[in-house]
Amino acid sequence: MLRLEDYGVIGDTHSAALVSREGSIDWLCLPRFDSESCFAAILDRYRGGNWRIGPADRSLCSARRYLPETMILESTFETDSGIARLVDFLPVEDPTHGRKPRAAQPREVVARLVIGVSGSVPMTMHFEPRFGYGQITPWFRAGASRGIQAIGGPHALDLVSTTELGLNREFVEASFTATPGETTVFLASYHLSHLPSSTEVGEALELLKRTKSFWSEWIDRCSYKGPHRDEVVRSLLTLKTLTFSPTGGVVAAPTTSLPEELGGPRNWDYRYCWLRDATFTLDVLLEQGFLEEAREWRDWLSRAVAGDSEDIQIMYGVMGERRLTEWEVPWLSGYEGSLPVRIGNAAHSQFQLDVYGEVMDSFHSARSAGIETAPDEWELDRKIVDFVCDNWRRPDEGIWEVRSKPRHFVHSKVMAWVAIDRGIKAVESFGMPGRIDGWRRVRDEIKQEVLTEGVRRDGSCFKRAYDDEEMDASLLMLPQVGFVEPNDPLAVGTVEAIEEELMEDGLVLRYRSGRVDDGLPSGEGAFLMCSFWLVNCLVLIGRHEDANRLFERLLRMTNDLGLLAEEYAPSASRLLGNYPQAFSHVALVSSVMALETAGMTRSVRRGR
Question: Are 13 and 240 in contact (CB under 8 A)?
């Protein structure tokens, strides 16, 4: 089984595929991020299905890169007989920000081009889709234009090529030779099985041209020109890739069940839109001048949460779906044997108080960036603040979505304070209508309670929960959201306590899972965003050399393509968790901004 580092990602703002160093697409769901998979070999090499193109001798690629400022992946295979390149991309067919007509029949295309560079390289192609998370072996039949169609229930993939395709009962294969000046094209097009396909092999070069233009024109809007610009650009492109452009929703990751510990049960489905993750993403995009994405996300949120504020969920499907029922896939063996493989996410029904603060903070950021708030949008904001005023005393499952009993988490209470504070700022600073005397009273009450109940007995620092003296990395957010000033002794003491108690091989753990009841067996990697949060806090308290040192170490944990997963396992020197992870890339960009501006940016010192 390949490591996560061995995969690149390609996407078209509707879905995304993982492509290995072997030239194999081992994960892809069509036509959306959260659709059933058609390739899932990363979760079961024998049953999941894959699509490999590479040298006949099965050489791994010797080098790979993204074409400059795009999500088009180029893998170079150097063999004894010559050199060939494989160019992989999901075409963005509408150059206007990746949008396709919303009422149109979904057509998703995967484009793979083999280009001869030197010599003569014998190549093979093996196309073995398995629909329904590996459960459905499709029926293959000859299609139009020398193509082959794979049909399984409602799903169909049409494969066309400029070379001869061989039909087998369970897969399609081809053998050909890559020579200089020759390009061999493979296009696989998804469509509903009762409708015809419309993909022609002659489209390939035009699709490549359009896709290059889309990505380069989009990233040209990035305003950042300082140090680590390459890393910032790659992270922003990754975040755009994880955006479902028809609605503006942002998925946490394009994968499910990539484990937080090898062989363990902490395997979750991240192909949904967490409000928390999306608000962090929004801050970063606003900071770089991507106002359109911010407006689209605001529109998505307004539709998703339409109705009673008491019914707001912590996550939704990409179209705003609310029911994300969690179930297990018994026929897949899991990544390196990590079970269960889960589809859906039961956390959608949890009460997580901090989310309301994140949402209100993102609305504050949007207003600060010049995005106007319509009267009906302000009505939503007002209802959220009123709901928090009525419910902030409730225990919750918190930012880490524990599956044990709800607690009075300090971070959750502080984010309730943030929700009310940002509502007050909307009235005081932006002229929104409202009587806020009651809001002020509750905001002060929350702060007083946290400073009384949320501090360790010795008064040195904040603690994880009212009834728990343990440390929690989420406490690093308190000075960043403005609850305390960075030079406050409690803020400094909390940073120092986290360094002493939650650091493992130089990285920050969320909490000590062996000492905390979160409803699951102990053991997990270090969440990368927590270490980036520490970078930001070190900057804020004036420890710039320490911040730079930690940041440079974190950069070394990206793979050769600049991608990050959710976690890193120092003991095994490898990435873990769903991949690539929006939160990790958001945190990377935020830390670049912190180091560049001494912390004086929206994404680091929020609410100011």
Answer: yes
Spatial distance between the Cα atoms of 442 and 388, rounded to a whole number of angstroms? 9
| Residue whose structure tokens are 């080098």 | 63
Q: Where are the domains of the chain?
A: 4-216, 221-597
Sheet of 63-66: strand order equals 63-66, 73-79, 82-89, 108-119, 183-192, 155-161, 148-152, 139-142
> Length of the chain, please?
608
Q: Alpha-carbon distance 569 to 307, whole Å?
A: 42
Are 483 and 417 in contact by the 8 Å Cβ rule? The answer is yes
State the architecture of 4-216 in CATH terms.
Answer: Distorted Sandwich (2.70)
CA distance 330 to 208: 39
The string of pLDDT tens digits covering residues 247-271 is: 888 999 999 999 999 999 999 999 9
Residues 502-515 have pLDDT tens digits of 999 999 999 998 89
Outline where DSSP puts E strands in 296-433: 315-316, 327-328, 342-343
pTM: 0.95
The DSSP result for 49-68, as a single string, is -EEEEEETT-PPPSEEEEPT
Measured CA to CA, the distance from residue 28 to residue 52 in angstroms comes to 13
Using DSSP bridges, classify how beta strands 108-119 and 121-128 pair: parallel, antiparallel or unpaired.
unpaired
